[in-house]
Design brief:
The protein is α+β, with helices and mostly antiparallel strands. It is 18% helix and 32% strand. Strands 2, 4, 5, 8, 9, 10 and 11 form a seven-stranded mixed β-sheet that branches. Strands 1-3 form a two-stranded antiparallel ribbon.
Length: 182
């Protein structure tokens, strides 16, 4: 973010040791997990092109409000910026960009479902908006959850669990995993 209070971040800490490093993709501010950085411009281009061509594979874990019906499924809803409430996003069938998310139930708790999420596209707040729109907001989501779903967790219950991509040094696919902290 641009706020001065956010100056102490992973990117700044890595750049203090490796000044040419850059973030390849982004995570929402309150999302934990795997984040990919490149050490130089050539690697940044190589990795960035994999994201653009949807050659990377990502999975997330989320705890959502309510009992999600079924064991797996997909969400296909177009997303656009909610200009009156920026940075919020919204479903927009007229001007929205195509957005798809696959989901699978990992566990069920009392009134809460733990999901593994696989974004097919990579839109801003995609997972958060998709889950809110199907009636299962992510717990602790300051933008999209309300009432009990917002109060049910002291942080956003969304975690980037794994990321697979071809390494710029040798082209071999690598997968990095960060265990879910909640």
């Amino acid at each position: 973010g641009k706020d001065a209070a956010l100056a102490d971040c992973l990117e700044a800490r890595v750049q203090a040791r490796h000044p040419t490093s850059k973030v390849v993709h982004r995570l929402d501010k309150d999302t934990s997990g795997v984040l990919l950085m490149a050490l130089n411009k050539k690697a940044l281009g190589y990795l960035g092109s994999q994201f653009e061509a949807r050659m990377t594979r990502k999975s997330y874990v989320a705890r959502v409000w309510g009992d999600v019906a079924g064991e797996a499924g997909s969400i296909d809803l177009p997303l656009a910026t909610d200009w009156e409430n920026k940075p919020r996003q919204r479903v927009d069938f007229e001007r929205g960009r195509p957005s798809q998310t696959e989901w699978q139930v990992i566990a069920r708790e009392a009134g809460v479902t733990r999901l593994r999420l696989t974004p097919i596209t990579g839109r801003t707040h995609q997972l958060r908006v998709h889950l809110m729109e199907i009636g299962h907001p992510i717990l602790g989501d300051q933008f999209y959850a309300t009432g009990e779903a917002l109060a049910a967790a002291d942080r956003l219950q969304l975690h980037a669990e794994s990321l697979s991509f071809r390494h710029p040094a040798d082209g071999v696919e690598r997968t990095f995993v960060a265990p879910c902290p909640f």
